[in-house]
Amino acid sequence: MQTFNYLRPAHLDELCQALQQPHAKIVAGGTDVLPQMHTGRLQPALLVDISRVSELEGIRIHNTQVEIGALTTFAAIQAHPTLRAAAPALTQAAQWVGAPMTRQRATLGGNLANASPAADAVPPLMIYNAEVTLTSAKGSRSLPLAQFLLGPGQTALQRGEFIQSVRFELPAEDLGSAFLKIGPRRGMTIAIVSAAAAVRLSPEGRLEQVRVAVGASAPTVIRCPQTENLLHGQLPSAELWQSAAQQIAVEISPIDDVRASRAYRRRAAGVLAVRALQAALSQAQEAAQARTV
Ligand SMILES: Cc1cc2nc3c(=O)[nH]c(=O)nc-3n(C[C@H](O)[C@H](O)[C@H](O)COP(=O)(O)OP(=O)(O)OC[C@H]3O[C@@H](n4cnc5c(N)ncnc54)[C@H](O)[C@@H]3O)c2cc1C
């Protein structure tokens, strides 16, 4: 049986103070922390339970800025009507995190701080160019998500810092976006490969604002800028999608592990990212048609 100290701050200033203590470990929904404590892999001297810090909760939309508090659960993200309409890649990702019980507990902040290359919230947030706000007793700073994630289990969080929120620009109506993942089964599964994509159609039907992010295929989730450049300004065609799938396979650096081989991931990532692009394109086409009606 482990013994540890436990603090449950109620406000941001109390949280900042609690995190000044040596060896403080944050717990939010506990879906990663508690299983690790159960197996003994994690033995914190001080557990700081942030679940009552109300300032970290909720989804706020001011004009075109979305701000999602770190404590927001995937169930809340999945159900949010504005996000479902304008940022469907994120709500689709939320929908596939674990099972309903997990989604009621698992938080966005925990998913990002965990820094798993397979974390489902990351590919959508990458294509929406999200930034994370990090806070400590010294103040707050914002970082692009790609700079926050440094490697498997590694982030830019410094001692005493916590994720306060995630912000991004609410995507325009004509930006289609989608998220897909492959696992051993559809639900309750950690991704073998995941992909999010966004695209807009020009009045001439060419691809614009192409964004592709792939998960579980490199030490962190990555954007694929060469694939994005290859697609930009092109008319969609079967040959173009094939070239995109090949380019994605070049841009990622997957590993062999218990869930899949490197070769499988390379092939699957290309196919999955192209499917996500095609789903995003269908949505962009619907938006373009709605504009002309
Ligand atoms: C059955 C099951 C199924 C799962 N399925 C999926 C899945 O399909 N997809 C997926 O991506 N994940 C999945 N997970 C992993 C997990 O649910 C998510 O990563 C979840 O979002 C973690 O959030 P949490 O609030 O539970 O984090 P916690 O367990 O509380 O914390 C996780 C880590 O983040 C740190 N942390 C938490 N909040 C903050 C903060 N605000 N600032 C700084 N650090 C913080 C903690 O110290 C800890 O290191 C699954 C887990 C389980 C148990």
Comma- or semicolon-separated keywords:
3 domains; FAD binding; FAD-bd_PCMH_sub2; alpha+beta; oxidoreductase; four-stranded antiparallel β-sheet; binds flavin-adenine dinucleotide; 293 residues; FAD-bd_PCMH-like_sf; five-stranded antiparallel β-sheet; Enolase-like, domain 1; Uridine Diphospho-n-acetylenolpyruvylglucosamine Reductase, domain 3; Uridine Diphospho-n-acetylenolpyruvylglucosamine Reductase, domain 2; Aerobic-type carbon monoxide dehydrogenase, middle subunit CoxM/CutM homologs; single chain
- Ligands present: flavin-adenine dinucleotide
State which percent range the strand residues make up.
15-25%
Order of helices and strands: EHEHEEEHHHHHHEEHEEEEEEEHHH
Give the beta-strand count.
14
* Strand adjacency order, main sheet: 4-5-10-6-7
- Give the uncertain stretches in residue-range form: none
Largest sheet: 5 strands, antiparallel
Which structural class best describes the helix and strand composition? alpha+beta
Instruction: Please state the CA-atom Rg, rounded to the nearest Å.
Output: 19 Å
Can you tell me the overall shape? globular
> What name does CATH use for the topology of the largest domain?
Enolase-like, domain 1
Number of helices: 12
* N- and C-termini, Cα separation: 66 Å
Write down the overall mean pLDDT.
94
- Helical percentage: 25-40%
